[in-house]
Amino acid sequence: MTIFVRAYQYGDIEAMQQIWNEVVHEGIAFPQKQPLSLDEAKTFFKEQTYTGVAVEGETVVGLYILHPNNIGRCQHIGNTSYAVSNQHRGKKIGETLVKDSIIQAAAHHFRILQFNAVVATNHSAIHLYKKLGFTQLGTIPGGFRLPDGTYADIHPFYIEV
């Protein structure tokens, strides 16, 4: 079945909340420690510059949020976070989401997409970002605390859009 990305709709929020919270519970990619309640999810996704969902048939299988990375003189730099449902991983949904986010970043007048904290153990994301032309800016040693209390390095990445 074909996967396509579109702007989220109100009826998608419960599925989006579930997918987002899966990633939060895993504790290996997002900085958040607490899951989103349904009311928090409604507000959170609405407040973004753009929220896209990957859909397979009628099922939301992934999502991303796009927003400024900073304010004022730096708000032309966008930031995104991606989440794919555990049961739908391995279908290149992440790649589809990242490609769409680059298009949406340009459409929303961002000049750059910057990822502040790609966890070094997230090898598939790092491989994907490099494949799509993102540049790694360096390494922040021990920048991410894993669920077991150990620390992993993080890598900032960017791409001009």
From TrEMBL:
GO molecular function list: acyltransferase activity, transferring groups other than amino-acyl groups
Superkingdom per UniProt: Bacteria
Pfam families for this protein: Acetyltransf_1 (PF00583)
PROSITE patterns given in the database record: GNAT
Residue intervals of the N-acetyltransferase domain: 3-158
InterPro entries (alphabetical): Acyl_CoA_acyltransferase, GNAT_dom, Mito_N-acetyltransferase
PANTHER family: ACETYLTRANSFERASE, GNAT FAMILY, N-ACETYLTRANSFERASE ACA1
Name listed for the protein in its UniProt record: N-acetyltransferase domain-containing protein
